Amino acid sequence: MSSNQVQIFDTTLRDGEQVPGCKLDTKQKLEIAEKLDHLGVDIIEAGFPISSPGDFKSVETVANLVKNATVCGLTRAVKKDIEVAALALRNAVKPRIHTGIGTSDSHIKHKFKSNQEEIIERAVAAVTHAKNFVDDVEFYAEDAGRTDNEFLARVCTEVIKAGATVLNIPDTTGYCLPEEYGTKMKYLKDHVKDIDKAILSCHCHNDLGLATANSISGVINGARQIECTINGIGERAGNTSLEEVVMILRQHPYLNLNTNIKTQQLTQMSQLVSDRMGMVVQPNKAIVGSNAFAHSSGIHQDGVIKNRETYEIIDPSEVGINQSSIILTARSGRAALAYRAKNIGYELTKIQLDAVYNNFLSFADKKKEINDDDIHQIIKLSKLSPSIYA
Ligand code: KIV
Ligand code: ZN
Predict the structure, then answer these.
(1) Torsion angle of alpha carbons 25, 26, 30, 36, nearest 10°?
(2) Relative to the CA of 98, which ligand 1 atom is closest?
(3) 324 lines ligand 1 (CB under 6 A)
(4) CA 194/CA 29 separation, integer angstroms
(5) Which is nearest to 171 in space by CA: 139, 140, 137, 150?
(6) DSSP H helical segments within 162-287, as ranges?
(7) Whose CA is closest to atom 1 on ligand 1?
(8) Using one digit for the tens of pLDDT, what is the confidence trace for 61-104?
(9) Does pLDDT of 156 surpass 80?
(10) How many distinct helices (H) and strands (E) make up the chain?
(11) What is the mean pLDDT of residues 179-200?
(12) What is the mean pLDDT of residues 165-190?
């Protein structure tokens, strides 16, 4: 793998599916996994096999089907979890076991009623056990965002010694600031022994709306894997959104960080996940929201009609959208009206446009948005000569 390549680890089917009320059945998981593989994700986390017979079956079925991506199953640092995950992944072309344990003071004290030395022992035992089944073992230090960096570096050093190939540094509670998360990655790069034997991975939650920013800060500071979900779905406020991190790296080529994602499939992928999970994508969602390439104010519309780049930093075709949309509202100007009228066959002269525009404004004051049928009606009402037809 080139040192500039960022692996995209998709956890839509595991962390993403932890959204209350959004459970997928095996058939739906398989359909999404197939599309994720086609999209170009490097790793698909298909589920948490020990959590239920349904999850076991889903991981097993996805592992049997997926041919390109690595297929991963989550476990706790518990022998039985690891054995069940190994069983579910046995037919995968590229299997990965993702095991780990909480490392923050809060997790050690309240969740495990334990101490730092015992946590290191359990982490090492889990990685060692997983290595009996697969070569590719990812270790997660749960709540790494709130874990003391020095202790985190000790844990990472020990699990690399035990054979971990990937070190996942989750900001489980979405607490970190981008600079803090980036500094944590840099600290690990500088202080973990044999760090070059493993890939550092970002896994950020969005409780403060910083998941994407934190993941980008992580890769700028040396991480080479981002864990994310389609549409940013996940527990509470969600996970890092796949489409956002991928497009950020693409739109900022000077960072010199690349992914394998075929971005033209992003919109379709987003719609599939939204539909199967019954979770509407907010209209103003970056990259895949229905308004992400829609322009409604007169000044912006005039600019975009003259040159798309005046108000758009992404060519919509790069994410699978045919073209930007010009939405007609009472805030729209003549340029937008002429543009939309032309799209449905009317070539208006300046004088005709003035007449139509006055009628348009009275319509638009009564309606939130003017559609093509309304434009036909407005033009009819304006009693223009037939020469307006292009
Ligand atoms: O957020 C988190 O810490 C997780 C781990 C289980 C990887 O999802
Ligand atoms: Zn998570």
Answers:
(1) 50
(2) 7
(3) no
(4) 37
(5) 140
(6) 178-191, 211-220, 242-251, 266-277
(7) 172
(8) 999 999 999 999 999 999 999 999 999 999 999 999 999 999 99
(9) yes
(10) 14, 10
(11) 98
(12) 98
DSSP 23-57: ---HHHHHHHHHHHHHHT-SEEEEE-GGG-HHHHH
Output the pLDDT for position 370: 97
Q: Does position 238 have pLDDT exceeding 70, yes or no?
A: yes
pLDDT at 320: 98
For residue 290, give the nearest of 374, 346, 369, 209 by alpha carbon.
369
Span 3-29, pLDDT tens digits: 899 999 999 999 999 898 888 999 999
Q: Measuring from atom 7 of ligand 1, which residue has the nearest CA? A: 140
The CATH homologous superfamily for domain 7-277 is: Aldolase class I (3.20.20.70)
- Residues 64, 65, 70, 75, CA torsion sign: negative
Which single residue is written with the structure tokens 């009402």?
381
Across the range 224-229, mean pLDDT stands at 98
The rounded distance, in Å, linking the Cα atoms of 193 and 223 is 16
Give domain limits for the chain: 7-277, 295-314+322-388
Residue with tokens 């344990």: 101
Atom of ligand 1 nearest to the CA of 15: 8
Is the pLDDT at 146 greater than 70? The verdict is: yes
Strand pairing class (70-74; 43-47): parallel
The answer to whether 283 and 289 are in contact (CB under 8 A) is yes
In the prediction, which pLDDT does 388 show?
A: 52
Supply 304's token pair.
């975009």
Nearest CA to ligand 1 atom 6: 142
Which tokens belong to 364? 């638009």
Q: Measure the CA–CA gap between 185 and 181, rounded to whole angstroms.
A: 6
